[in-house]
Amino acid sequence: MDPIDLTAPVARAAAPDLGRFLATRGEVLTRGPVALIFAEDDVELASTLAHHLDLGFRALVLLVAEATPLPLDLPGRVHPVRWDRFDAASVAEAVSAFARAAPGTWFYYGYNAEYLFFPYSETRSIGEMLAFHSEERRDAMLTYVIDLYAGDLAKAPSGVCRQNCYMDRSGYYALERFGPDGARAERQYDFHGGLRWRFEEHVPADRRRIDRVALFRGKRGLTLRPDHMFSDPEYNTVSCQWHNNLTAAVCSFRAAKALKANPGSRHEIPTFWWQNSVWFEWKSRQLLDLGLIEPGQWF
Predict the structure, then answer these.
(1) Can you tell me the distance from the alpha carbon of 83 to that of 69, in angstroms, rounded to the nearest whole number?
(2) pLDDT per residue over 192-244, tens digit each?
(3) Cα separation of 282 and 280, whole Å?
(4) How far is CA 177 from the centre of its chain?
(5) Residue 35: which region, alpha, beta or left (left: phi > 0; alpha: psi -120 to 50)?
(6) 8 A C-beta contact, residue 99 and residue 29
(7) To 5 degrees, how large is the angle CA 13–CA 18–CA 23?
(8) Residue pLDDT, tens place only, 82-123
(9) Residue 118, exposed/middle/buried by CB under 10 A (0-12, 13-18, 19+)?
(10) How far does CA 216 lie from the centroid of its chain?
(11) What gap in Å lies between CA 62 and CA 39, rounded to an integer?
(12) How many CB atoms lie within 10 A of CB 154?
């Protein structure tokens, strides 16, 4: 992973807002896959950008607050866009705008301090993986948000530490999903686990799920809801009707960061470590071996 220097700031006016970007820079979105990175703050922003560049995304759109400085020499594939709202509804609004602006383009969306992993991602590109997924007539891919956390909060009180990083190897489960009419949603489940499950008393009920359709193909009229589900029910399914499909993981420090920043939980959690913590190896093979991502029919 090549380092990205975020220490040299550039004038704030250098990045357009979302409306101007879609109106004037739409060619960036014509050939995917495109990663949408929402920079809530500057925590591990450089490593997030470098990781997704290494995966082979043709472009990264960095949605970043006006107050966040940016370097003069961002890599050419990184396109900053000024965006100052990072609540769930606002992020869904932005993702929906991109989806409708570029029908047919594959997108990923995530936040800083989050890292996408898919089967064999060390040797195969995101484009290769999505090409196979498209051949299986799939327009979206389910991802699981796997919480990462520092092993020693005395040394990393923010909960974020890439060098001493752990994840839960077990404790994940799925519940059947039901629609507003009470009917079972076909091939849809609510997934739980990780820090949101272990410290659920500090997490609002509507934020405890760990499933996110983070990879999807743009389509006219498509809308993302604040609960990370799309308006097209098929986008929210685990797999197609005839066999299992690929799944991926978003390995994320966001929950750890939030639990240690929130005054209501900061002093209640002396450690995130428990008997089912395991050292995170930063390799897709570990996630495959733990059953947290699946290759489907792709070998």
Answers:
(1) 13
(2) 999 999 999 999 998 999 999 999 999 999 999 999 999 999 999 999 888 88
(3) 6
(4) 21
(5) beta
(6) no
(7) 100
(8) 999 999 999 999 999 999 999 999 999 999 999 999 999 999
(9) buried
(10) 12
(11) 7
(12) 8
Under 8 Å between Cβ of 265 and 189: no
Structure tokens at 125: 């590109």
Look at 50-54, 147-151, 152-156, 263-267 and tell me which has the smallest mean pLDDT: 263-267
| Joined tokens for residue 88 | 């769930």
H-helix or E-strand spanning residue 254: helix 254-261
φ, ψ dihedrals at 99, nearest 5°: -60, -40
pLDDT reading at 174 higher than 50 = yes
